[in-house]
User: What shape does this take?
Amino acid sequence: MSGDVTVISGPTAVGKGTVVAALRARHPEVWVSVSATTRPARPGEVDGVHYHFVDDASFDALVADDGMLEWAVVHGAARYGTPAAPVREAVAAGKRVILEIDLQGARQVCRRLPEVRSVFIAPPQWETLRERLVHRGTETEEEMARRLATARDELAAAAEFDHIVVNDDLGRAVDELVDLLGL
Assistant: This one.
């Protein structure tokens, strides 16, 4: 698979989804992959839009049939992955492809597709990340503790990426991504 593929990753609650949504609002021609997950939908999430919400058996079948570009158990809980077929189709159609994925998935994609561009979205500081997670209000205390522990490891991996974009101001972060993508 070749083409213009960008992996965007970063720790939980850093605002990856918000940054990518703002990028798409400015540049609707950018194609963003929809990940599959075994976790239940959060309030307001729509199947096929935010994620493909699948059961364990369906996820297992995709993995067994090499139907995932990458996949991982995230935060020690649910599995997440990028279905390969839609990505291949978008690349074949000449689209700019964005994969918004976790660190484990980003590493897998970068190994499988060394030509991809990788961007790490970082918080301006640790406290900002913690506050964003708390204010999101979608996780229990136990889930937040697990996500914050994972986030510390993820932040330590930022240097593995081609580019680091600090999400301290949404407009500025999107401007930086637009420049990196040559849009």
